[in-house]
Design brief:
This protein is an alpha+beta fold. The chain has seven helices and 15 strands. The protein folds into three domains: about 50 residues; about 60 residues, no CATH class; about 130 residues, 2,3-Dihydroxybiphenyl 1,2-Dioxygenase, domain 1 (Roll), CATH 3.10.180.10.
């Protein structure tokens, strides 16, 4: 109907992995549209447009049988706030799926009956059966910012790696990467071993042990072992450090225009990322 009235219409996708990521995605789509925008949301889409309407070109929000949550209110609250809600544990089908790190997530699907009664009660059964078969799931564990509890931690105190040569490690991290050496003390657990620390910003430390005299094998991936350490840098410093690699003949892999991977002298993988803390490749992760 809007197209007939000479209005430009765009239907943005929703990943349904979290409200925050869906809102961020829709907001990024809005940045590509010139002129004033009216955002329209139905059902869960109402919560998405509520959080996505941060662009100056958004002039109005339209809710069609949609959620319009208050600040800090989770989606489950309006669903369950009144007795007799038809969305509950009995209306959901959990289906596990593998995550990239090898762990497991859980998607939630509405049962066939719940789609017909609670989700689309005004439609013929043959239509709701098709909707049941083609529905997109919600992730069970991901929560939007307003739904997550505060972390019990204050932050990462330090990450400890192993060095085979203290002086070589200091040259790499302090002289090449620009992480100042802040302390070098004796390792209390192993006579003759050093424990030393580099400042990686924001009150965080990268620490090392050396174990002279021990027959340590080269780095390799093992369960419970380190995959890589990712350290955030200001974009200008990031570009400066990457140029140092070329000048010093250091091998590295440029993942994209904000991320570079390299290995330290003992084979530990380091990622330097120009995204701010809490963001990764342009997406908010915190």
């Amino acid at each position: 109907m809007l197209s007939v009235k000479a209005r430009t219409v765009a239907a943005s996708a929703a990943t349904l992995r979290s409200l925050a990521s869906d809102a961020d995605y829709v907001s990024s789509v809005l940045k590509t549209i010139d002129g004033p925008v009216v955002l329209v949301g139905h059902s869960y889409g109402g919560a998405v447009i509520t959080n996505a309407a941060v662009n100056d070109n958004v002039k109005a929000l339209v809710y069609i049988a949609a959620f319009a949550p208050d600040e800090g209110e989770s989606l489950i609250q309006p669903v369950t706030m009144n007795p007799g809600s038809e969305i509950g544990p009995d209306a959901l089908i959990p289906r596990p799926y593998p995550l990239p790190d090898g762990s497991q997530g859980t998607d939630l699907y509405l049962t066939q009956e719940a789609v017909a009664t609670a989700f689309a009660g005004d439609l013929p059964r043959k239509v709701t059966d098709r909707m049941y078969a083609t529905q997109r799931p919600f992730d069970q564990h991901l929560r939007s910012t307003g739904e997550r509890p505060a972390s019990s931690a204050r932050g990462l105190h330090h990450t400890a790696l192993i060095s085979s040569d203290v002086e070589r490690t200091v040259r790499f991290y302090q002289d090449l990467l620009g992480f100042p050496l802040t302390e070098l003390i004796e390792n209390r657990d192993y006579t003759g071993s050093s424990h030393f620390f580099f400042d990686i910003g924001n009150g965080n430390l990268l620490a090392f042990f050396d174990f002279p005299g021990l027959d340590l094998t080269p780095y390799r991936e093992v369960l419970g072992g380190l995959h890589h350490v990712a350290i955030s840098m200001e974009p200008s410093r990031w570009h400066e450090i990457v140029q140092r690699f070329d000048q010093a003949g250091i091998d590295y892999v440029l993942h994209n225009d904000v991320s570079v991977y390299l290995t330290d002298p003992d084979g530990a993988r380091i990622e330097l990322i120009a995204d701010p803390l809490g963001e990764m490749y342009g997406h908010e992760v915190l």
